[in-house]
Design goal:
The chain contains 1 helix and 15 strands; from the N terminus they run βββββββββββββββα. The strands form 4 sheets. Strands 4-5-6-7 form a 4-stranded antiparallel beta sheet, with no helix packed on it. It has a 4-stranded antiparallel beta sheet with strand order 8-9-10-11, with no helix packed on it. It is mainly β and 171 residues long. It is globular, with a radius of gyration of 16 Å.
């Protein structure tokens, strides 16, 4: 399965193209991310004053499940390599915090509580997430262990930004 992206008529849409059947499935949403093993994807929708985080199984695609729904802003979902867990940014008050959710109906687990923005989560493996904190010129990189709750500072003061001055990076 491949992913194609398109925008139209004031809303965000993307498509999933199945190479084997040569069919395209279009979905409303934005920020799609696919698990490393190809089993699932996550994305965000914005409708009726609510922001929703969805997960869609790709092995036998049905309807996406809503993992989380809120009036708070959501962005930057990251999906674990096996597709079971999703980490995302949510703005509960004045800054971005990181949250994790495993299944629909469960309340997300808050990962960070930093006064500055926690941004750009990326899974290193099934349980560890790399993210940055702070404003662009003073970002620090942290590894968050989702099982133990441990937080380990990896780099301090721009190391990831210096390596990737375009503000996008890959683990």
């Amino acid at each position: 399965t491949g992913t194609a992206f398109a925008r139209g008529a004031g809303r965000s849409r993307f498509g999933l193209y199945d190479i084997a059947t040569r069919t395209l499935r279009e979905l409303d949403g934005e920020s799609p991310v696919v698990a490393a093993d190809g089993s699932a994807m996550a994305f965000i929708t914005r409708r009726d004053g609510r922001n929703r985080l969805h997960r869609l199984a790709l092995s036998a695609p049905g309807e996406p499940e809503v993992l989380h729904s809120t009036v708070d802003s959501l962005t930057n979902p990251a999906i674990s390599p096996d597709g079971r867990r999703v980490v995302f940014q949510q703005m509960p008050r004045f800054d971005w915090e990181l949250y994790a959710v495993t299944k629909a109906g469960d309340a997300p687990t808050r990962i960070t509580r930093e006064i500055q923005h926690d941004l750009l989560p990326r899974f290193l493996d099934e349980r560890r997430v790399l993210a940055v904190v702070g404003e662009a010129r003073h970002r620090r990189a942290w590894i968050h262990d989702l099982e133990s709750g441990a937080h380990t500072r990896l780099f301090h003061n721009n190391t990831i930004r210096t390596i990737s001055p375009e503000y996008e990076w890959v683990v």
